[in-house]
Structures are given as structure tokens and as C-alpha cells.
């Protein structure tokens, strides 16, 4: 009887040990798998962190593109400003340079031809501009004669510009006779400055 009790005790102990060992093994396996797999909370945090990172990169790229566009716009504006400044300098020179005539004459002197050629080149470069040629005379002669002489001088410059390819409808003439002297003296030094054509741009 004692023997049977001892055997039964041993059997119960053995089964209990096996059960406990099996439970520990399962618990250990689950623990290792749980350690290997990321926790749901950690995965969510990582996913949320990835979205702002991508968005930040996209915003940075957009910022770079915008800066490039601004730089290009500045270059275009600078080029336009430079072209405008160049045009204004040429326009100022165009209007500042007069041509001069001999006493009681209206033909274009040889030394004045390069000036008119340069004016024609300007008008070709800026076809939206027109020019008014103002004929002037010195104080000698009657008002009527000087008005007619100033008109002939303006027409001479107009014909010369037309011969260089400037359309006649872009050129108008007016005579001021002796009414607009540049120099007020009563000698040849003053008179030579008053026998002239002036050129005014019409924009």
C-alpha cells in the first residue's frame, strides 16, 4: 500500500513538473516573439513621424523651387531694366545731337550724315517711336523767308532718314524760323549754332 502511494505521488509530481515546464516554455516563446515584433503603439508613432518627414521634404523642395523662380524673375527684371536704361541713354543722345547748315543752305553736309545714320539705326531698333524734326535759322532774313528755309532744312533731314529705310509716316517736320535761337549773340559764332535741325522723339 505504501508502495502504491509512493508511485502515485511520483506520477503526480512528474505530471506537475511537465506541465510547469511546458507553461514556462510557452511563456518564454511568447515573450521572445513579442520582443521581436514592434509594439502597436511604437509602430503608430513611427508611422506618424514618417508622414511629417515626407511633408517637410516636400515643403523644402517647394521652397527651393520658389527661390529659383524668384531668382529668375530678378534676372529678367534686371535685364529689362538694363535694356530700358540703354534705350534711355540712346534716346537722350538722339535728342541732344542736332545737325547744322551753312548760311542760307538746306542741304545735308557730309559731316552730318553719320549723325543721321545713327538716328536711323535708333528708329529701326525702336519701331514704336516717331520723330519730329524742327528746322531753325539764324536771325538774318525776314520771318517769312526763315520759316520757309527752316521747313526746307527739316525736309532735307526727313528725306535723308527716309532714304535709310525710315517710313515717312514716322517723321514729321516743323519750322520755327528764327524764333528759337540757341545762341543769342549777333555774330557768326552764334548764328552757326542757330542754323540747325533739332530732333524730338515722339513716344
Structure description:
The chain is an alpha+beta fold. The protein folds into two domains: 40-96; 99-202, 2-Layer Sandwich (60s Ribosomal Protein L30, Chain: A). It is built from five helices and four strands. Strands 1-4-2-3 form a four-stranded mixed beta sheet. Helix 4 links the parallel strand 2 (130-136) and strand 3 (171-177).
- How many beta-strand runs? 4
- Going across the biggest sheet, name each strand in turn: 1-4-2-3
Strand content: 5-15%
C-alpha end-to-end distance: 133 Å
Helix and strand element order: HHEHEHEHE
Any idea how many domains?
2
Briefly note the structural class of the backbone: alpha+beta
The outline comes out as: rod-shaped
Query: CATH homologous superfamily of the largest domain?
Result: OmpA-like domain
Number of helices: 5
The parts where pLDDT drops under 50 for at least 5 residues are 24-30
Topology (SSEs and partners):
Blueprint: H1 2-36, H2 40-96, E1 99-100, H3 113-125, E2 130-136, H4 143-163, E3 171-177, H5 188-194, E4 196-202
Parallel strand pairs: 2-3
Antiparallel strand pairs: 1-4, 2-4
Q: Main attributes?
A:
203 residues; alpha+beta; 60s Ribosomal Protein L30, Chain: A; four-stranded mixed β-sheet; 5 helices; 4 strands; rod-shaped
What does this entry show, briefly?
The chain has 203 residues and is an alpha+beta fold.
Amino acid at each position: 500500500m505504501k508502495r502504491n502511494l509512493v508511485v502515485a505521488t511520483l506520477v503526480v509530481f512528474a505530471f506537475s513538473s511537465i506541465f510547469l515546464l511546458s507553461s514556462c516554455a510557452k511563456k518564454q516563446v511568447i515573450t521572445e516573439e513579442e520582443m521581436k515584433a514592434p509594439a502597436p503603439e511604437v509602430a503608430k508613432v513611427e508611422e506618424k513621424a514618417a508622414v511629417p518627414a515626407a511633408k517637410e521634404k516636400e515643403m523644402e523642395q517647394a521652397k527651393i523651387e520658389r527661390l529659383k523662380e524668384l531668382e529668375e524673375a530678378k534676372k529678367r527684371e534686371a535685364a529689362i531694366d538694363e535694356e530700358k536704361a540703354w534705350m534711355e541713354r540712346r534716346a537722350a543722345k538722339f535728342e541732344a545731337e542736332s545737325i547744322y547748315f551753312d548760311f542760307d543752305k538746306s542741304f545735308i553736309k557730309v559731316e552730318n550724315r553719320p549723325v543721321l545714320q545713327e538716328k536711323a539705326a535708333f528708329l529701326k531698333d525702336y519701331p514704336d517711336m516717331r520723330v519730329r524734326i524742327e528746322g531753325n535759322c539764324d536771325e538774318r532774313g525776314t520771318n517769312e523767308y526763315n520759316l520757309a528755309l527752316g521747313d526746307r532744312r527739316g525736309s532735307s533731314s526727313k528725306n535723308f532718314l527716309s532714304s535709310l529705310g525710315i517710313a515717312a509716316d514716322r517723321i514729321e517736320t516743323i519750322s520755327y524760323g528764327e524764333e528759337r535761337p540757341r545762341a543769342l549773340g549777333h555774330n557768326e559764332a552764334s548764328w552757326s549754332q542757330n542754323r540747325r535741325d533739332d530732333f524730338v522723339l515722339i513716344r
